[in-house]
Amino acid sequence: MQSLPCRIGRKGYVRAEKGREGDEKTPLGDFKLRFGLYRPDKLPPPKSPLTFWPLCQTDGWCDAETDPAYNRFIRRPYPASHEPLWREDGAYDIILVMSHNDSPPQMDKNGTGLGSAVFIHITQIDDRQTLGCIAITPDNMTKLLPYLHVGMDIKIHDEY
Question: What is the spatial distance between Cα 157 and Cα 3, in angstroms, rounded to a whole number?
Answer without folding.
Answer: 10
